[in-house]
Amino acid sequence: MSTSAPAAETAAAPDLRGGMIQVVIATLASTVGFWAWMAIAPLQNIYGETMGLDQGQISIMLAMPVLVGALGRIVVGAMTDRFGGRTMFAALLLLGVPAVLLVAVAGSIGSYPLLLLAGLILGIPGTIFAVGIPFSSAWFPPQRRGFATGVFGMGMIGTAVSAFFTPRLVEWIGYWPTHLVIAGIMVFWALLVWFVMRESPVWTPSRQKLVPKVMGALRLIITWQMSFLYAIVFGGFVAFSTYLPKYLLTIYPGEVDAVGAGTRTAMFAAAAVIARPIGGVLADRFGPKVISLISLAGIVAAAYVVGQQPPEGVLTGVVFLLMAAAMGLGMGAVFAWIGPSTPPDKVGAVTGVVAAAGGLGGYFPPLVMGATYHAETNSYALGLWLLVLVGAAALVVAGMLRDARPKS
Fold it and tell me: Which CATH architecture has domain 18-400?
């Protein structure tokens, strides 16, 4: 009896070999989705000049993809529980192709209303994040899910890819060919996902209807707690990834050009991407609460320094990189917090709601920055002070929450 029990347990254990490969495929698919999602932001100076847009119009233009990308994650997260990551990844990438082409049309004819419509549709590939968290979690045991979701979270490097390559591709090959390249990559990766990706053996489709599933997630206190924290850490990342080029070009005119602003934004995104899996691993080891507190404290401190509007140079660059790293740590910690605190059949739905909150956290700051910009002093200080205050409030809230350690 003593020898047969371990053998039975071994036989019953799911075979999770190959999980890392599947997570890498998901991460690269997410990278492509994020690139498409952020296709407008790196070229905002072109649209602003050719269409004669003011600060408010540019802010609205940048916010459109974020809005749909945020709210859509609620539905996409619940749909992932039912249809699986493979189907959802492929579908979202293919559905995003027409949006990228419509952006190209809008920019070519100089139509601001059409660009806003294209931006809304462009939010579809932005929902891809809500697919990868439950997909990646299912491929790893509970005590390593912070690592798994952290690795998948590196797919947000797509924002850096967009910031770095999109303006350069426009210079190298032209405006229309650039968007055709993005669309072609999306189609290629959708096909690769369909033929190569597979679901975890521990995943089972949920047959619960969408509305009850989402309502069930909303009834969990962990959903609201993590939504608030994620709205700060991921929302701040999205906001700066979309608005940083505009910020740098406005605050440091003549010192930073469009390509330089794109490079700075790419470095900002890369710092957050690198820090995200580190945040997940540290959360697995030390608990997500302490890592979240460190993250929020770093965001508050960095936002205060940026609000002082230091001269362009090394200090400004380092502070933005530290802010991005703090946001990345927080993103990894929040999703490491969700896993052990959520019933397995609700992980996708909770992930969708929390991811939506993060996206909405990135929707409002560009609008606030545009509305609070002080032309006479050339300053965004008020908007940055609001980030300091909200971050400080999140720091207090996180300190009051109960920690969660993954169970073996």
Answer: Up-down Bundle (1.20)
Distances (CA, A) of 214 to 125, 211, 228, 245, 351: 20, 5, 17, 36, 10
Over 50: is that where the pLDDT of 287 sits?
yes
CA 9/CA 12 separation, integer angstroms: 5
The burial of 247, by beta-carbon neighbours within 10 Å (0-12 exposed, 13-18 middle, 19 or more buried), is given as buried
Higher-confidence residue: 268 or 406?
Answer: 268
Backbone angles phi, psi at 236, to 5 degrees: -65, -40
229's tokens: 């924290």
d(CA 377, CA 90) in angstroms, rounded, equals 48
> For residue 374, what are the β-bridge partners?
379
pLDDT-derived band at 11, boundaries 50, 70, 90: very low
**For residue 313, is it left (φ>0), alpha (ψ between -120 and 50) or beta?**
left
How many angstroms separate the CA atoms of 243 and 248, rounded? 9
What is the Cα–Cα distance from 112 to 108, expressed in whole angstroms?
A: 11
**Could you report the per-residue pLDDT of 172-208, keeping only the tens digit for each?**
999 999 999 999 999 999 999 999 999 999 888 877 7
Question: What is residue 9's predicted lDDT score, i.e. its pLDDT?
Answer: 44
Band (pLDDT 50/70/90 cuts) for residue 405 is: low
Q: Give CA–CA dist 323/153, Å, rounded.
A: 17
In 127-209, which ranges are continuous DSSP H helix? Answer: 129-137, 145-153, 157-173, 175-196
Asked if 232 and 361 count as a contact pair (C-beta separation under 8 A), the reply is yes
Q: Which residues pair with 379 in a beta bridge?
A: 374
